[in-house]
Amino acid sequence: MSGLRELLNRRFRSPHGTVRFHLDAPRGEAAGPRVLVFLDADDRTVGQLDHQVCGVCSAAFVRNIAVASHWQGRGVGREALTLLLDLAPGHRWSTSRQSTEGRGFFAALAEETGVDFVERGGRCPHMSTRA
C-alpha cells in the first residue's frame, strides 16, 4: 500500500501527550483480523482498534475500539479510525454492535468524514470470523 509507512508513522499529539500507532496484521490472511494498537510516549498500550479490511470487496469491519479511560474524549480513537479510513479509501464500513457511547462516536465521525459506519452491517465472505 502506497504511503502505508508514512501513515503509520503519524503521531497524534494532544495536551495530554503523544500517541503513535502500530498495525498488527498477520501474514497470509488478506482480510483477516488486524489490530491497530495505540502506544503512548513510554510504549504503553493506551488503546486498540480491532478491524478487518477486504481489498476484493472494498469492505471494512470494526469489531471493537477501546481507549484507556485517561485517554477517552481526547481524540485518539477518532485519529485511529481516521487513519484506517486513509488506509482504505472508498471502502464500505460496518461495525459490530455499538454501545451508547459508540453510537455517538460513530455518528460524529460519520458527520465529519461523510463515511457511514453501519451497525451490525456484517462482514464480507473473505473475512474470517475468528478474533
TrEMBL record:
Residues 1-131 form the N-acetyltransferase domain. InterPro entries: Acyl_CoA_acyltransferase, GNAT_dom. One of its GO terms (molecular function) is acyltransferase activity, transferring groups other than amino-acyl groups. This is N-acetyltransferase. It comes from Streptomyces boluensis. The lineage of its organism: Bacteria, Bacillati, Actinomycetota, Actinomycetes, Kitasatosporales.
